Amino acid sequence: MNAILASLAVLLGGAALTALLARLPRPGLLIAMLSIVAASVLCLIAALPLLVQGHDAQPISLDWPMPLGQARLALDGLSAWFLATIALLSGAVAIYAWSYLRAEIGKEPVAVLGAFLCILVGALILVVTATDVALFLVGWELLMLASFFLVAFHHRRADVRRAAWTYLIANHLGTALFVLPLFGILAAKAGSIEFQAFQPALAGSPEGTTTVLFLLGLFGFGTKAGFMPMHVWLPVAHPAAPSPVSAILSGVVIKAGIYGLFRLLGWLPALSMSCAMIMLAFGMVSGVLGVLYALAQHDIKRLLAYHSVENIGIIGLGIGMGMFGHTLEKPALMALGYGGALLHVLNHALFKGLLFLSAGAVIHATGTGDIERLGGLARKTPVNAAMFLLAAVSICGLPPFNGFVSEWLLYGSLFGGTWSASRLVAWVAAMGALSLALMGGLALACFAKVVGAVFLGEPRDRTIQAHPTPAFMRIGMFIPAVFCVAIGILPGAFVPLTAGGVRVVAGLETGETIRHMQSMLSSVGQLTLLAAVLLAIITGLGLIRRLLLRGRDSATSPVVTWGCGYAHPSERMQYTASSFAWSLIHSFRSLLWPHRRVVSPAGPFAAHAELETHVPDMAEHDFFSPLFRGASRMFRMIRNVTWSGEPAFHTKPVEGGGRVGPMRVLVVGVLTALRQGRVQLYMTFMVLTLLVVFLVAAMESPDSSAPPAPPAIHRVNGVLK
Question: What distances in angstroms separate CA 545 from CA 378, 383, 537, 538, one per listed residue?
């Protein structure tokens, strides 16, 4: 624990010294990055022994300058796992940022960004090591404020300012409406703000109370994590922030919400199956819609932001199956569900951090993140192309990399749930397995689009001149890449380290957790090893071919006699990213509601044709934006005492038209059908009502596998009946 205090002191000193050197940005930035690297090493020194040995560290008490007692920091299996995740990615990002941000010296206040990065990492350490509500909320608030200023780094742009305020308002609403009431109820029931008092105080609580507490945590911490539909800040904040900040936001900041959810589940007794079903529903919706929206994006960082939503949904699937195991007293489901979710927390931080760093290298080299303008970068930045491809294979859940291992554990929990005696649990687990398979297939299509459009083919915009990736940026990307490979090839060395976190959340002994995981690891290790050998053979053959063709003269090389017009391709003869993905987007048009604007060629000598596709986020455009516009109009109406919300003497014409959202179309269609008296609609409502009744009855009925209760014995007139 002394290493934790030393890391906080290093970060605080680094932030203060960097702020003092604001007029000397280069040394200030260097001090900030070195402070983060040093703090990351100290955090790993503190966390790794706990993860390996499986015991908790002694807490440290500090004098608290407020009338709230003492501030205590402690590490257990859960906080040590998240602390190691924070340290691994933060150190890599700090090394990468030294080269990335040097180009901004003299243009932007890079020293200020370095100071806020130190504060951000320190706030993350406070959040995962705090043992009371007050210190946790201090770290939580510092985390939000530091992230706000980092997102607003390029504040001169209107879209960046909007993204920063969207992030701050969304996270503060989640905290004010859900997190604060949650901690208020917990503190009132326990009579203390210490975390260790919450679990005994909640033992034996009514099911309604625990359900309310779970829902408060799901919506409050889920807003930070990015579950749909609370994800609206993610797609706007990630593209607006500098790429090192985007990697931190996606890799570890959103995991603070997952940490809060895990910590809450450790305090609560076994929840009802309805809570587990809600958790799985959020996971399935977030995962499937996240990858579908990612498939439709044209900006590389916005695309990766939606993949963060997808992977948060995958983590939600594991949490939901762990909750099912806790409710049904199935240790295997708890071990595989919670353990797979914890492993995916680390894996996502590694491969998503690497993807954002690689995307940042693309933007650094070309000056744009527009996928439609890029192409052919593998020839100019081969190392970055290899790093992006490695991370893309990892996020798609393919062997031999780390994403395959965590998803294999989650498949194990989902397939294990399908064998449950409860038909409802089996049905929901099967739906979860199908959704996870769908996410993997769509993610593969999405990254085939990105890799093909950005790194392969010919440049689509000849004005873009790319330069090689600087050395420190390559080193920063190399660190998570090594761990992506190591976890995939040697899963037996990393997966058991999650047992301490499972013990904190579910109370499952470390040995029992490892025993259940070993049954899944025996096969996954062989699969990843075979995939690694196959990949090595393919890579070796490619290198041999390259060496054999290096000295061949172009005059003696084979001549293509007929290449169907593709012997000398140009940028106009290759697929765009939008055209590559349009068939899939069109297949899911009832979920995505895409816009497609076409200017068709006309006449025998057509000179102009145009095609534009756009997929707006339904949660943002059709729910939150109208809600906030309505609230804003209501307050303007009160202030100006007019129906339009504008002063009567300064009324402006109101524009009509625009996008009609799916919710409005659905409501109008239903009302029209009811008014016209369509029998088909009445029958549909009757069938849906019966399905809801049957579902509620199935949830409330006792388990069919339980033995029947013995008949009651009554005495009537002295005779037993």
Answer: 18, 19, 12, 11
Element (H, E) at 595: strand 595-599
Residue with tokens 């932001």: 305
SS3 666: helix
pLDDT score for 67: 59
Which pLDDT belongs to residue 442? 93
Indicate whether 63 pLDDT > 70.
no
Residue 61 has pLDDT above 80, yes or no: no
* pLDDT greater than 80 at residue 57: no
What is the distance between the alpha carbons of residues 665 and 673, in angstroms, rounded to a whole number?
Answer: 12
- Determine whether 343 is exposed, middle or buried from the number of CB atoms within 10 Å of its CB (0-12, 13-18, 19+): buried
For the CA atoms of 498, 421, 277, 667, the dihedral, rounded to the nearest 10 degrees, stands at: 150
Average pLDDT over residues 508-524: 84
The reported pLDDT for the residue numbered 714 is 47
The model's pTM: 0.87
State how far the alpha carbon of 369 is from the alpha carbons of 296, 301, 372, in Å.
15, 7, 9
Listed in sequence order, the residues at least 6 apart from 254 whose beta carbon sits closer than 8 Å to its beta carbon are: 224, 225, 226, 234, 308, 312
Look at residue 387 and tell me whether its pLDDT is greater than 70: yes
Among positive and negative, which fits the CA dihedral 662, 668, 671, 674?
negative
How many beta carbons lie within 10 A of that of residue 299, not counting itself? Answer: 17
pLDDT for residue 650 is more than 60? no
Residue 138 structure tokens: 């201090």
Neighbours of 422 (CB within 10 A): 19
The pLDDT score that the predictor gives to residue 716 is 46
Could you give the residue ranges of the DSSP H alpha helices within 106-248?
Answer: 110-129, 133-151, 158-174, 180-190, 198-202, 207-225, 234-240, 243-248
Q: Are 273 and 203 in contact (CB under 8 A)?
A: no
Cα 257 to the chain's mean position, in Å?
10
Domain residues of the chain, as ranges? 2-534, 615-645
Pairing relationship of beta strands 60-63 and 70-73 according to DSSP bridges: antiparallel
Amino acid in position 381: T
Only one residue has tokens 């608030």, namely 141
Contact 524, 405 (CB under 8 A): yes
CA 634 to chain CA mean position, Å:
34
Contact 71, 61 (CB under 8 A): yes
Q: Would you give the distance in Å from CA 283 to the centre of its chain? A: 11
Cβ-contact 105, 25 below 8 angstroms: yes
Nearest to 162 by CA among 104, 248, 84, 240: 240
What distances in angstroms separate CA 471 from CA 355, 384, 478, one per listed residue?
A: 17, 11, 10
CB 254 within 8 A of CB 234: yes
CA dihedral 301, 305, 308, 313 (to 10 degrees): -150
Distance (Å, whole) CA 70 – CA 73: 10
Written as one letter, the residue type at 649 is F
62: left (phi over 0), alpha (psi -120 to 50) or beta: beta
Amino acid in position 629: R
Residue 711: strand, helix, or coil: coil
Roughly what angle, to the nearest 10 degrees, separates helices 402-418 and 471-489?
Answer: 40
Structure tokens at 432: 């979860």
Q: Are 126 and 135 in contact (CB under 8 A)?
A: yes
Which backbone phi and psi does 516 adopt, to 5 degrees? -70, -35
Rounded to a whole number of angstroms, the distance between the first and last alpha carbons of the chain is 68
H or E, element range at 70: strand 70-73
Distance (Å, whole) CA 681 – CA 665:
16
Residue 5: what residue type?
L
- Distance (Å, rounded) from C-alpha 230 to C-alpha 221? 10
